[in-house]
Amino acid sequence: MPPSRGIEIPERVAERAFTHWELSPTGCYISTYSTASHGYAQVGWQDGDFRTCVTAHRAAWVHVHGQIPIDMTVDHKPTCDKRCVNVEHLRLLTNFENARRSNNRDWPIGECANGHSNEYLLKQWIKSENRYRLRCGMCIKMDSLKSRENIKNDPIKARKRKEYDRKYRQKKRGLV
Ligand SMILES: [Zn+2]
Ligand SMILES: [Zn+2]
Q1: What is the mean pLDDT of residues 158-164?
Q2: Which run of H or of E encompasses 98?
Q3: What is the number of domains present in the chain?
Q4: Ligand 1 centroid vs 31 CA: distance in angstroms?
Q5: How far is Cα of residue 17 from the mean position of the Cα atoms in its chain?
């Protein structure tokens, strides 16, 4: 889901998005606005020389609940069509919670996929992307325990690991 960009959606646009839809057999209100490549319906408006586009479900949300705070995302229920503008099928999530969710995969808000509470969240530096990412500290711990276990049970990996550790220690002592 595209994250919030802090765009204020005019009320007339919000109302248009809220009222232009067709009922699907599953109870979704399928927006009649055109669908962009990301699969969400879009509504746009002209503001001087600028044409602004937002997703229709965000606009529909704004019609009922008002403007969306800057670090929040309007998220569809996991079973819902991406073009749906039925506000009953939408919820407000922090960008962070939203980023952890992928299609048809859901878990309670405030927990990771493995049920660890958000209190274990850690900031992890991603070098390749030059930014921080929030990750569940308990999951990181579990992953590293699992990989250590895997290495122990695999003689080739265990040998490689030993070699790596030896080189690392030499490097630390300034021998390489
Ligand atoms: Zn829906
Ligand atoms: Zn976790």
Answers
A1: 88
A2: helix 95-99
A3: 2
A4: 10
A5: 23
